[in-house]
Amino acid sequence: MPAPTCLSPPSLPLHHTAIASTSLLSGGRRHRRSRPRHMSGLVLLKAKAGDVDGHVDGGDERLLATRRHAVLGVARVLFAAANERCLRGMDRAALGCGGFLAGAMANSWRVLMQGLASLMFLCARADEYVRQPPSPLVLTAHDKPAAHPQQVHISTVGRDKMRISWVTDDRSTPSVVEYGESRGNYTASATGDHATYKYFFYESGAIHHVTIGPLAPGTTYHYRCGKAGDELTLRTPPASLPVELVVIGDLGQTRWTASTLAHIGGADYDMLLLPGDLSYADTQQPLWDSFGRLVQPLASARPWMVTEGNHEAEALPVVGFAPFVAYNARWRMPHEESGSASNLYYSFDAAGGAAHVVMLGSYAEFEEGSAQRAWLERDLAGVDRRRTPWLLVLLHAPWYNTNQAHQGEGEAMRAAMESLLYEARVDVVFSGHVHAYERFTRVYDNEADGRGPMYITIGDGGNREGLALKFLDYHKSAHLSVFQEASFGHGRLRLVDETSAVWTWHRNDDEYATVRDEVWLESLASPKLSMAAVGRQDEEL
């Protein structure tokens, strides 16, 4: 795969780190709030163009929000139609076709279009919070034949199977995967299905999904897609603890994203979890293709388990486009295997059942009587904590958040579902949406509670919109927030054994992934968890 092409001046920094910080004490731990180095200059007031409003109370506000998004949706379609040709020109320039001048003109036109679109969204959402200037995109070109597999990513299916997903421009390419434990020696094969989708003037390539297995745990397999691609290598997750999970949110495809991916690839792990906002295509469908090519080196080697964010919706009701069409077609998750009727929420086991991971849908119905809530009740009721000491939940819009960005957008879902998670003794809840890092102590119903989950916001993967810089000192949940920092990075949760785990957050610090936050957890299913341990809160987590 060719190196990504950065469409930006070379003087822009690769990523951003924090230098000035103030130390506070919270829960017996040092509480750092940092200002990114790059914020010495101007910041832009920029509306979040791709956002889908949270659940707003009041019929009038809902009606106004619906009308606003319908108008903005039509504008985004017009922008996408013009922008697709610009992207095609830049893609050709990245491959050395069409000449430098053509690529530069396409890029300039696209910047102009984005500026006009941002101005329009700013007028529509003048109350939006302040963000830093947007990062340049990284476009990864495809220079192979039409039948050559691209955008390969893998996900777990059941106890011992793996789904291989990829795209070919040639829609007649067979959906078959050959695989084996030795290079070039494929002792098994499996067939699957493929489909395409249309979005305005865009028609996708063939999107293939093939499930292979049964596979041995903790084993390296070599595989080839479509009988025409390069040989790739994957490793199946272990069948027992320990297991290491990478967690990133709001990833996008910018130079910050490339930095985050490089840091993740610099150390081993078993599986990656992503709580929404993947490509930031936002109706510009070629960006889904570019994103798939960007993440393929990591996503084809370890399972990527994802759930949807607001940027996956891409709903345009005025012109009849249903939400999540591209996301559901490209990122098929094991929802049917977990008894879910929707690809927007599902669950799966890791480490041979020692961990159960629940992926919730912030943008699927969740109220009392909804299909998602009924499914969640059944799913949690089926978890035996004597056999499954670790219970994790991921969702997009955070339920606890002291950042100025996206205030209150997860509140309705919290009110509808928090008691279910508390009663099931969920250990950790990860979310994204807010483009910063924040960790809370164990919480239930806005109060510190040693039997509640630890809440972690990790929407700092590298998105094009920049960081959410302002935390609110006097927020009602400020006393529950243990660590905050507006920097890009990723997290790692290592489930060490049945009782202990360690969480680390790694900031993108120049060429290194610097550990800025670390905390040990004790499983809420652990028989060692005494009342004294419950009362100690964050100091003993």
TrEMBL record:
EC numbers, comma separated: 3.1.3.2
UniProt xrefs under Pfam families: Metallophos, Metallophos_C, Pur_ac_phosph_N
Domain Calcineurin-like phosphoesterase: 245-437
Gene3D superfamilies attached to this UniProt entry: 3.60.21.10, Purple acid phosphatase-like, N-terminal (2.60.40.380)
GO molecular function per UniProt: acid phosphatase activity; metal ion binding
Entry keyword annotation includes Disulfide bond: no
Lineage: Eukaryota, Viridiplantae, Streptophyta, Embryophyta, Tracheophyta
The organism's place on the tree of life at top rank: Eukaryota
Residue stretches making up the Purple acid phosphatase C-terminal domain: 452-517
First-tier enzyme category under EC: hydrolase
Catalytic activity: a phosphate monoester + H2O = an alcohol + phosphate
Family, per entry: Belongs to the metallophosphoesterase superfamily. Purple acid phosphatase family.
Protein name: Purple acid phosphatase
CDD domains associated with the record: FN3, MPP_PAPs
PANTHER family linked to this entry: ACID PHOSPHATASE RELATED, PURPLE ACID PHOSPHATASE
Keywords from the UniProt entry: Glycoprotein, Hydrolase, Signal
Domain Purple acid phosphatase N-terminal: residue ranges: 149-230
Keyword Transmembrane helix recorded: no
Organism expressing this protein natively: Triticum urartu (Red wild einkorn)
